[in-house]
Input
Amino acid sequence: MMAIKHFLVGGAVLVAMVAAPATGADDQRPILNTLREIYSTLRVCWSPPRLDKARGHLELSVRLSFRGSGEILGEPFISFETPNVSEEERLAYRISVAQALQRCTPLRFSKGLGGAIAGHPMNIRFIEETPKQEI
Output
């Protein structure tokens, strides 16, 4: 079954068709028990875009909330981006974060964590540190 997901990226909504997540006894996703595990899981899932020239440092923060079931509640919002980035770079990074959220959610929360964070906004920082290339 395909579902439509919306991701707000810097004022624009990214709409994507994604497969509904697998559920049931064969689900191999780990059960998350802490906020640290949520942050770590999402960062590990993210793959920075491959660009011709590495910028050296780029940071993007996304504000989002989860349901107790691990699904994203509402639309993620980009709350910070490294300034002085070209529109091409900015779009590439926004798309890569939206793709990570598509791939990795819904997350599997323990009952306690799901109940504690449901509906509460959180900010996830995605940071790329690459050696700067000479021009």
The chain has one domain: 2-17+30-129. Residues 15-26 have pLDDT under 50 and may be disordered. Residues 2-17+30-129 form a domain with the Fusion Protein Consisting Of Minor Coat Protein, Glycine Rich Linker, Tola, And A His Tag; Chain: A; Domain 2 fold (CATH 3.30.1150).
